[in-house]
Amino acid sequence: EDLNMRAGASLLWLLASAARLGASDSTHKITLAGGCFWSVELAFQRLPGVLETRVGFAMGNHGNPTYEDVTKGDTGHAEVVEVTFDTSMVSLEDVVRYFFLIHDPTTLNRQGNDVGTQYRSGIYYESYKDREIIDKVIKEVNKGLWEKVERSKAVTEVKAMSMFHPAEEYHQDYLKKGGQDASTGSVTPIRCYGDRGPIKELDKPEIRALFQKIERKAAAATNKEL
């Protein structure tokens, strides 16, 4: 069943993308920080409607940083994933919702065993209109967190995007190049460091429901435009 769902999602994505080839006005970009960028990138490569991802560093005070510079934790940069997506298939609102489903937004400067300001939770937007949508989703997230864990809330940094510095080529598509599944709609666990843990679980009812919602939107768009 999972294979059929993923194959269907991939086909819909390809058909919808082909139908809008050259329609650049439907593309949008958001930059996200949610811990080690390897696993965040792979998670977004699986999201229907995502066209491209790049890992890198942003929001720091040091020009042209290297990975080694940033891991020292004193450059002010966050490890980020620049996500380019097709708004006719997936909305910014759902991209941000998905982001909150794949990382822990309640831990300050930390994701799991990764500790430091470079591992902070952050959303960096391209236009002020994006900020309104992001704030709406964060309000929803905080309401849910409060109901689950009293006094818990997101500590996610939300700022206008400043300079993005791509990470070295070695880091681009790192987990995909290591053999992990990057196919659209996949919910198989992500091994965050390649051949070892920790594990990022994506097989959640909320994620499956979100994927199905996006697939329905893609199918409707494909039927309309083909």
Automatic annotation (TrEMBL):
Top EC class, one word: oxidoreductase
InterPro entries the record matches: Met_Sox_Rdtase_MsrA_dom, Met_Sox_Rdtase_MsrA_sf
Residue ranges crossing the lipid bilayer per the database entry: none
UniProt-listed Enzyme Commission number(s): 1.8.4.11
Record keywords: Oxidoreductase, Signal
An MF annotation (GO) of this entry: peptide-methionine (S)-S-oxide reductase activity
Signal sequence, renumbered to the chain: 1-23
Domain Peptide methionine sulphoxide reductase MsrA: 29-179
A Pfam entry, by short name: PMSR
Similarity remark: Belongs to the MsrA Met sulfoxide reductase family.
Protein's UniProt name: peptide-methionine (S)-S-oxide reductase
Species of origin: Lotharella oceanica
Source species taxonomy: Eukaryota, Sar, Rhizaria, Cercozoa, Chlorarachniophyceae
